[in-house]
Amino acid sequence: MLSTHGEEVLGFIRDFETSSREYLLSKGLSENEMTNAYLDLQWNFLHTILKQRAGRPRKTTPHYFLRSKKHAI
Questions:
Q1: How many Å from the N-terminal Cα to the C-terminal Cα in the chain?
Q2: DSSP string for residues in 29-56
């Protein structure tokens, strides 16, 4: 079973597919042209997401969580 986050992502992908297809049809593309155009849309969309993620600072675990504590014996 998918998690709530997984379901949201899957729904987003389905919405993207539907809206992309509608957009390409509105531009008058044939079924043969649609396959390549759709792949181009996916490629551009993926790179847009990756560029945005690269521009954000990464969330890291604070250094004090990574240190082991010394115990007195």
A1: 47
A2: --HHHHHHHHHHHHHHHHHHHHHHHHHS
Model confidence pLDDT, tens digit, residues 9-48: 889 889 988 999 899 999 999 888 998 999 999 999 889 9
pTM of the complete model:
0.56
Nearest to 42 by CA among 7, 6, 5, 17: 17
Burial state string for 36-57 with b = 16 or more CB within 10 A and e = fewer than 16: ebbeebeeeeeeeeeeeeeeee
Triad 50, 56, 60: Cα angle to 5° = 110
Q: Which amino acid is at 53?
A: R
Distance CA 36, CA 30 (A): 11
